[in-house]
Hints:
Layout: E1 5-11, H1 15-26, E2 36-43, E3 59-61, H2 64-69, E4 75-78, H3 85-96, E5 101-103, H4 106-123, E6 127-128, H5 139-144, E7 152-158, H6 161-173, H7 177-186, H8 195-198, H9 201-215, E8 225-226, H10 234-242, E9 245-255, E10 260-270, H11 274-277, E11 282-289, E12 293-300, H12 304-319, E13 346-347, E14 349-355, H13 361-371, E15 376-381, E16 390-396, E17 399-400, H14 401-412, E18 422-426
Parallel strand pairs: 1-2, 1-4, 2-3, 4-5, 5-6, 8-10, 10-18
Antiparallel strand pairs: 7-9, 7-11, 9-10, 11-12, 13-17, 14-16, 14-18, 15-16
Helix pairs in contact: 1-12, 3-4, 4-9, 6-7, 13-14
The structure holds L-homoserine.
Amino acid sequence: MTNKTWRVGVAGLGTVGGGLLQFLAERPDFAPAGGRAVITAVSARNKTRARPVDISSLAWFDDPVALAASPDIDLFVELIGGSDGPAKAAVETALKAGKPVVTANKALIAVHGAELAALAESQGVPLLFEAAVMGGTPAVKMLREAMVGDDVASVAGILNGTCNYILTEMEKTGRSFADVLREAQGLGYAEADPTTDVGGFDAGHKISILAALAFGCAPNFAAAEIEGISDVELLDIKLAKDLGYRIKLVASAAKTEDGVAVKVHPSLAPLDHPLAQAGGALNALFIEGKRIGRIFIQGAGAGAGPTAAAVAADIADVMTNAQRPVFQAPAGALKPFIAIDPARAVGKAYLRIMAKDQPGVIAAISETLAECAVSIDAFLQKPVEGAGGVPIVLVTHATPESNLLDAISRIEKLQTVLERPRLLRVARI
Ligand code: HSE
């Protein structure tokens, strides 16, 4: 125990930064190691914007890098965002100056995590990022600390609140994707550029970090296979439901003998599965450990209060001098990330084929599927008003992805088929 006062410099005063100001104002008793954490200096784009707490008495820095280098702070909190630019420069500067760093920046850690871990470890200071994944729901500490005694086989879940909110609202209200996205932006879930959310990149950053923590390899965002939700149609949401599934943006990472597969796809989850039932902006995650078995966590993945609580938990780790490698192993001992060729993946899939409503259509489709060794598990033809053709939807048994892609290309060429069949994966959860 110590009476040390930690002088905290915060760069970025958006949703999370504002939440942290408020947290420390509300919690003067926050003293995990007996000492105190006091925000003494800040940096943001706009000095005069209204904030939840008066910052006029705090030292102001226009340049976050200058704040990171300041000898008047003991701990640097980076809440700017972005994988490069000022966020990266400021974090590097703080680490080089021997200051502990706490960040909520998933893009930075997913893209540059390995080099920053090496820098932090060479300087003997912590680099912590609980708030980067699932906001206030403690996924990072769970994998880095609690699961370190097990061998994690896979992690899979819903890691983007904006996409989850959009898909939930589209199903509930029958509104369009664009309409619900505007609402999500107004509610403060979405990133500054919503493409980061709806394109699947935010979930891709988060699952890349979880994969590194789970499997003890360097994060490798570039190797993640990413598909967002912008092309998910109301029609597929409805038809999937008729087949007993709900469409969710599922991020997953699995380890096999050959390597690691990191993926983000709009995927079908059985309606009674916990992932299908995690609605609204909730985040949810399954972790599969060899000895511990399956763990499921669910909670807030965004928002000022939850995310600031996660930042505060990291600040507590700094104050209590908790020492862990940045990922599951010291930076120099991280295993290489060997990506598995996506075409080798095997799983169930949903196909929607828009076809002319005439004799022989289904026979031609099922013949083509048989030629490609794709076996059907469930099948539905349902006339939909105004759909331009009749949708034929089916769920396959587990099939190699290469066979599916072959079948899709051949079905697209059938004379009675109107467009390229829509492929969605059934989540392996
Ligand atoms: N835009 C993110 C989401 C915020 O919607 O989940 C938290 O990372």
